[in-house]
Structure formats: C-alpha cells, structure tokens
C-alpha cells in the first residue's frame, strides 16, 4: 500500500492534495503535517513512498526540512519528494539538485503533478 506525507501550513492545500491523491490515484494512506518540524518528527517514525512538501512554512521551512531529511540516516532519507511552492525560484541551487526531489510551482498544473507522482512512485 502506498503511503504519502503531505506537508503544508495551509489546511486548504493539505485537503486539496489529500483529495487529489484519494480520487485520482486511489491512495488512502495519507498523513499530513502543518510544518516542517512536525513532518521531520513523523518521518523519523514512519516510512513513506512519497512526500509532498511546501517551502514557506513556520518553524522549519521546506528546504530546511529537505536538507535535514537527506543528511540523517532514517527511513525516509531517499524517499522521493515533490516540493510544491510558489517560491521555487528562490531556492538555492543545492536544494534544486537534491536527489530524489522534483519541484512544482504553485499554482499546480494537474498534468505535471500527475507526471511527477508517476515518476516518483515508479522510482521509489
């Protein structure tokens, strides 16, 4: 069974992505987190097949979460990540070249999201 983690500080985005994964991809095992710090703690306890991540969030930005996730041994060190943010151009090149990571700008293009999910889940 495919397990997804959705990390975004906006409840509407978490709900929209959760609904999309349930309806479009028939994925029921979805966990959500409202910031990077909460997501980091969850990732130390549970293995996911895909993480969808916002960048601008309180407490622990998406890029900082991604750096911490990739540096520390753990169940999600190599888990595919789709960073979904309006601030992709503001990320450093080191974040943009992080392994197993795809970037998608808001507003989300549903076709591109579908391709990224397919790529991520096939390669995981």
Could you walk me through the main structural features you see in this protein, from its secondary elements to its overall organization?
The chain has a single domain (3-123), classed as Rossmann fold (3-Layer(aba) Sandwich), CATH 3.40.50.2300. Helices cover 43% and strands 19% of the residues. It has five helices and five strands; from the N terminus they run βαβαβαβαβα. It has helices at residues 11-25, 36-45, 62-71, 93-96, 110-123; strands at residues 3-7, 29-33, 50-53, 81-85, 101-105. The two termini are 13 Å apart.
**Structural class, please?**
alpha/beta
Q: Averaging pLDDT over every residue, what do you get?
A: 87
The H/E string reads EHEHEHEHEH
Could you say which overall geometry the principal axes of the C-alpha atoms support? globular
What does the largest sheet look like?
5 strands, parallel
Provide a compact summary of the structure.
With 124 residues, the protein is α/β, with parallel strands linked by helices.
Provide keyphrases for this structure.
124 residues; alpha/beta; Rossmann fold; five-stranded parallel sheet; globular
Spell out the blueprint of helices and strands.
Elements: E1 3-7, H1 11-25, E2 29-33, H2 36-45, E3 50-53, H3 62-71, E4 81-85, H4 93-96, E5 101-105, H5 110-123
Parallel strand pairs: 1-2, 1-3, 3-4, 4-5
Helix pairs in contact: 2-3
């Amino acid at each position: 069974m495919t397990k997804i983690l959705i990390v975004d500080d906006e409840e509407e985005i978490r709900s929209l992505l959760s609904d999309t994964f349930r309806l479009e991809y028939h994925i029921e095992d979805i966990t959500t987190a409202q910031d990077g710090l909460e997501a980091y703690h969850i990732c130390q306890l549970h293995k996911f097949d895909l993480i969808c991540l916002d960048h601008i969030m309180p407490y622990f930005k998406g890029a900082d979460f991604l750096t911490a996730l990739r540096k520390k041994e753990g169940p999600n060190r190599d888990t595919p990540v789709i960073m979904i943010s309006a601030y992709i151009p503001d990320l450093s090149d080191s974040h943009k070249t992080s392994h197993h990571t795809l970037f998608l700008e808001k507003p989300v293009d549903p076709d591109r999201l579908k391709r990224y999910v397919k790529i991520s889940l096939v390669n995981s």
